[in-house]
């Protein structure tokens, strides 16, 4: 079920085969027909119809780069007119305005349909940690959607919107796209303003994008990116147009990869790697320093950042928070200042080691996830399954990398396969270029 | 009492008016004649004489850039053949080797005379926190030497060595030179390898240099700097040769400066500023974000970094540590992980604000210290006086700046005055260029 891309929508608006109002109406019908599938927390159908009509009535609006393009926003990011819930109704508030990065999309003519489901407080990679309907992957069979940006991935995978705004701290912007057969792009931290985002780990968070088309990612990145003085981690984009064919691609020894007993996934990844090796010049970097950084994240003191944000709320509303989420966030209290500095020293060593690896390779290609889970499997063992899901994503922001999860077919038994392309911060153009080549092995 | 500069020494070796052996003998006599003045913790006269003789006997050695030049090393940095004490005899150990940045000086023909006194564990800016003899400033009248690099500043100010290796975490490499009428240069963090340095705050520490001559600083920086894979904060130097006359120099409003009731110092600083304003194009940046970062350091969780390094030692040797130092370091235990992340968020905001200020100015010029103290004054109130001494230095490493303290005459009542020139990281050439112009207002 692939929906139209931005370019296809704009072309159809131009040739009259569609109009924003008609398209919005079609999408809203689809959403309504599906009923509550756990994708959306809030949809404002009336506002979307009104906005489409206003755009159609505004002279010159049809020249806007996202004229009449519907999109979705993860419900941890403020959009005026929608409550921000973080999938915790007791936490919900009416925002005073729209996050500036999202405002840039509205200013470009896009139409926000609503806010999407997430693992509560963006704490989770599996999609089951929500008091709303628990979403399922578009691949069916009770497969989890992945999280925390579950609804944003689904809205794209279901063809309802060409792109959705999500977030990524430990993999939240890559795991759900990987489990739903779409692209999950985590730009370099600081390119997209995080003002108006309720933080998970403020030092690691970034906005991310879900789409079905690399050109849509490029277009939306270009519109959203911009230095914001109110975001202390904000930094300017760096353009880098390399010939993808000349890139040096790191593919770690398969013996270093973990598929957690999922031989079908291992086989599918092996096939996908082989295609990568045909398209690019490759080398074999060690995976250990990346995984060591990932372990620092899920076993280390960064969870205390969640306590900084939600500690006061937890103290007053403990019963309103899902037990697994409450337990994880409260765990931040066990870490001392010396624990943080010790972990940051170790991280500095790993960052230096990884920087040296990236002197000899341009991008690293890994599985996005090592295996998949069903909803009952995750509910039976919510922490261990979640850790497995983040095996290849936990280290991304800690090591200040950019990354994109790219669909790479299915396993023999029909589950989604995804490759993740990683590069040092500010090499966003590079990972998108590799993603495009992987999706279209014979570019013009 | 100014000793010969490196250039003067080398010239005298070349023209035969001095030899390394003869010069070393002269210096050792001076040191011996002064007796235990608190400058040195250890001097190995025999080794220095032997080394001078060896250099003289080595063909080609006289072409080395520091041939036969004696120098001193702060006793928190390993030099083979000398115990590393950190001014705590119970902590002392025999190092397995020489810190690589110091080894580069030895490889360049320099002669390490010995290890210099410091505030214990490099914890202090005043120079009185030592179980060895408490040093005094060369300006006399019971004036403190400043710390923690007290002995390194004195060895230069007494003319015993043309340069000394020191360290700077919160001002330890700038306050003692400021109180002894010499130059204190804190390069950008990462230019000089910190391998072989016992850390104070590992995320902030850097090696620093004391000298009486800007050209000596430039020469020694050039020899010592170099990327070291064993130092995770290591980074390469950046050359920037701007015309000092065209630099935009920030001089904050004098109403924002604090002299703690020291009107003679305020007057002297006013006169020094006036000279700066005649030599450069100036502007008036706010000082508040810099001072706010400084407050984060002395009131915030970074003290826990000292506990990371010395906590185990303190647990077993509490009675062997000076009470004021023990109290400060133990204070790190009161900070939680959330305290660290909160402080780092605030620091990120201040760093962003300061980066914007440096878009409109090249360097900032401040007093190095706002006032001076006598040894009895510091002993009577060791913490408050120390905080006053760091008023203009605490923020330097937190904000990732480079800095040099430059002698600027004396107060009416004969105490040392010093200007501090600060710039963003990697603009080391810039601050040294300004220092040179301030010392020689009519350059060729």
Describe this structure as you would to a colleague:
The structure is a homodimer of 444-residue chains. The first copy, chain A, has 16 helices and eleven strands. In chain A, strand 7, helix 8 (263-279) and strand 8 (281-283) form a beta-alpha-beta unit. With 444 residues, chain A is α/β, with parallel strands linked by helices. In chain A, 39% of the residues lie in helices and 14% in strands.
Q: What level of helicity do the residues of chain A show?
A: 25-40%
Whole-angstrom Rg of chain A: 20 Å
Number of helices of chain A: 16
Shape of chain A: globular
Structural class of chain A: alpha/beta
Give the helices and strands of chain A as they follow along the chain.
HHEHEHEHEHEEHEHEHHHHEHHHEEH
User: Main sheet of chain A, how many strands, which sense, barrel?
Assistant: 11 strands, mixed
Query: Which spans of chain A have pLDDT < 50 for at least 5 consecutive residues?
Result: none
Descriptive tags:
eleven-stranded mixed beta sheet; 39% helix; 444 residues; homodimer
Care to give the gist of this entry?
The first copy, chain A, is an alpha/beta fold and 444 residues long. Chain A is built from 16 helices and 11 strands. Chain A has helices at 6-15, 20-34, 45-57, 100-107, 150-157, 175-178, 214-224, 263-279, 288-299, 303-317, 323-330, 337-357, 375-380, 382-389, 395-398, 428-439; strands at 40-43, 70-74, 111-116, 163-168, 183-186, 206-211, 248-250, 281-283, 363-367, 401-410, 416-424.
List the helices and strands and how they pair.
2 copies of one chain form a homodimer.
Chain A: H1 6-15, H2 20-34, E1 40-43, H3 45-57, E2 70-74, H4 100-107, E3 111-116, H5 150-157, E4 163-168, H6 175-178, E5 183-186, E6 206-211, H7 214-224, E7 248-250, H8 263-279, E8 281-283, H9 288-299, H10 303-317, H11 323-330, H12 337-357, E9 363-367, H13 375-380, H14 382-389, H15 395-398, E10 401-410, E11 416-424, H16 428-439
Parallel strand pairs in A: 2-3, 2-4, 7-8, 7-9
Antiparallel strand pairs in A: 1-3, 4-6, 5-6, 5-10, 9-11, 10-11
Helix pairs in contact in A: 2-3, 7-16, 9-12, 10-11
